[in-house]
């Protein structure tokens, strides 16, 4: 019998990528979890191998019903939109997913996680919420991971995404900004060589983990990495692909936070992201995301230049 895989956040970037990758692998029955199965973004996912199921991450009863009969589940939460930037709510939603998986006997729970930044940042940075989180959108996911490992000690795998290439798209927050002289500037407060990935490759890695099963991946942290690059490297890739002069500057973290608040970014968001970049400058994020391991799992993983070429049309409003 085909294994039944539940995919949380099926209409989002990560869950949608997992669903698509599992369809390409084939041989699975897929259950796409969505808050509104009747929405256009949901109905387009339906097919012979994909069942749409309503699931509310704040409603444990709906989650138990959604996970019933599943052999494996991909779990992901949305800190920024669905959780409204609330780390406590993200933690509770994640716990609800884990509890439902445990109650329904799910054999493999694959969680999209991130590091706990507090050990590296707490001595020097003020907490941003009442639970002492220094980068709430990282730290809450790490708290879910700790709970998952406690509740499902032989059935967990954590996938660690990198910085999304999609953040470089026009209007996405890390895109090159036009300058009066016709050049472009990327201004982010990070000097480190960071790991980057296409969101589709999160799906490809998670699908490879699910296909491999708990025998191969239980108890492991698996990184997603398509490119290791500083912001200067990213600017050089833009220049090469688009033939434009693109440079990078790395202002101090707190100065950058004040600058983006001036551009209309809410202060809690600006401080969270500034601390995130400080974390990247403090701890080598590549340790949990070896590029060689991603290439072994996904031989066709996209590097930055290849991704830019693939998305050339999306940059037309910026570069013409």
UniProtKB/TrEMBL annotation:
Gene Ontology CC entries for this record: nucleus
GO molecular function: oxidoreductase activity
Family annotation (InterPro entries): NAD(P)-bd_dom_sf, NmrA-like, NmrA-like_oxidored
Top-rank taxon: Eukaryota
NmrA-like domain sequence ranges: 1-287
Pfam families the record matches: NmrA
Assigned keywords, A-Z: NADP, Oxidoreductase
The keyword NADP appears for this protein: yes
Family the entry assigns: Belongs to the NmrA-type oxidoreductase family.
Protein name (record): NmrA-like domain-containing protein
Species, as recorded: Chlorella variabilis
């Amino acid at each position: 019998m085909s294994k039944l895989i539940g995919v949380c956040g099926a209409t989002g970037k990560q869950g949608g990528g997992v669903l698509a990758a599992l369809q390409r692998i084939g041989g699975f029955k897929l259950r796409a979890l969505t808050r509104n199965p009747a929405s256009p973004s949901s109905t387009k996912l339906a097919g012979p191998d994909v069942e749409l199921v309503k699931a509310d991450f704040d409603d444990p009863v709906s989650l138990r019903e959604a996970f019933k009969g599943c052999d494996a589940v991909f779990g992901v939460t949305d800190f920024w939109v669905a959780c409204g930037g609330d780390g406590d709510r993200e933690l509770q939603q994640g716990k609800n997913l884990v509890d439902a998986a445990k109650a329904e006997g799910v054999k493999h729970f694959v969680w999209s996680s991130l590091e706990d930044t507090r050990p590296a940042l707490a001595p020097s940075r003020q907490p941003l919420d009442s639970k002492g989180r220094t980068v709430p959108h990282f730290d809450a996911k790490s708290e879910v991971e700790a709970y998952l490992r406690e509740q499902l000690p032989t059935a967990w795998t954590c996938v660690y995404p990198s910085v999304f290439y999609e953040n470089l798209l026009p209007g996405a927050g890390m895109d090159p900004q036009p300058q009066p002289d016709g050049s472009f500037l990327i201004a982010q407060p990070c000097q480190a060589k960071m790991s980057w990935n296409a969101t589709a490759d999160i799906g490809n890695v998670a699908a490879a983990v699910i296909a491999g099963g708990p025998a191969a991946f239980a108890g492991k942290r698996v990184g997603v990495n398509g490119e290791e690059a500083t912001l200067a490297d990213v600017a050089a890739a833009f220049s090469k692909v688009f033939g434009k002069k693109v440079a990078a500057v790395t202002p101090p973290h707190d100065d950058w936070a004040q600058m983006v608040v001036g551009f209309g970014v809410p202060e809690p968001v600006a401080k969270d992201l500034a601390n995130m970049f400080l974390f990247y400058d403090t701890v080598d994020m590549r340790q949990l995301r070896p590029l060689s391991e991603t290439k072994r799992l996904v031989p066709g993983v996209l590097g930055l230049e290849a991704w830019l070429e693939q998305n050339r049309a999306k940059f037309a409003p910026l570069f013409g």
